[in-house]
Write a structure and sequence with these properties.
The protein is of the alpha/beta class and 224 residues long. The protein has a single domain, classed as 3-Layer(aba) Sandwich (Rossmann fold), CATH 3.40.50.150. The chain is built from nine helices and eight strands. The protein has an eight-stranded mixed β-sheet, with helices on both faces. Helix 2 runs parallel beside helix 3. It is globular. It starts with 9 loop residues before the first strand and ends with a helix.
């Protein structure tokens, strides 16, 4: 098989503006996340995520990392996708259940109360058009390997926090704790894993906290 040339695009969209319309529930969720230091996707990253959903119009989305349910609720509203979302933290699960119920989308957002490393059997009989990874950074590669077999042809994997709050800058590395350095190394390894993957074309957008968009190649592309 002929070698495939990979083209990587890193985009700087720091001057982009976003215009969101928040429901009262979403305003409350954003305020809680800010006050309680719960990480949810930042506005610029959310804008890109929602635009990809508008273009792709996925029937089913798998989210790894529910937190308080904010991104699951936002993703569902774009084009009425069925959302399957995995969360292991019991405090987050309680809040997510409350928020999903209050949103009115409990029939469309399915919360799976498990560690994502152990939840494959709960979704193994389903196919997803889009997978959104926003959970434990150290496990990103494992999450990708576990769940991408469930991705439809030309499906998309979106990974948040690829810039890790700017800490992937080599100038920041030596100032960090040992544990943070470990996370940085794993994120850099995941970035390389995505960019070198033969079956996916990955673009890294340097907006928000960094978003990786990995598009699954179809069978024809893999045999060119």
């Amino acid at each position: 098989m002929a070698a495939i040339k990979k083209i990587v695009i890193v985009m700087d969209a720091t001057n982009n503006t976003t215009d969101f319309h928040w429901s009262a529930l979403e305003v409350q969720m954003r305020a809680y996340a800010h006050e309680a230091h719960v990480p949810i996707i930042v506005d610029e990253g959310l804008a890109l995520l929602e635009q990809i959903i508008r273009i792709q119009r996925p029937s089913k989305i798998l989210e790894i990392g529910t937190a308080i349910g904010f991104s699951a609720i936002r993703m569902h509203q774009v084009c009425n996708s069925q959302i399957y979302t995995i969360e292991r933290n019991q405090d987050m699960i309680c809040l997510a259940k409350k928020n999903i119920q209050a949103s009115g989308f409990a029939a469309q957002i399915h919360l799976i109360e498990q560690d994502a490393l152990e939840a494959f059997d709960s979704v193994k009989n389903k196919k997803f058009d889009l997978i959104f990874i926003d959970a434990a950074k150290a496990q990103y590669t494992k999450f990708f390997e576990i769940y991408t077999p469930l991705l439809t042809n030309r499906g998309i994997v979106i990974t948040d926090n690829m810039s890790f709050h700017g800490l992937l800058d080599p100038k920041e590395y030596e100032n960090q704790s040992r544990s943070v350095k470990g996370l940085i190394r794993k994120l850099l390894s995941y970035r390389k894993f995505l960019l070198d993957h033969d079956n996916y074309d990955t673009t890294i957008f340097e907006i928000g906290d960094g978003i990786a968009v990995s598009v699954k190649k179809d069978e024809y592309a893999n045999h060119k």
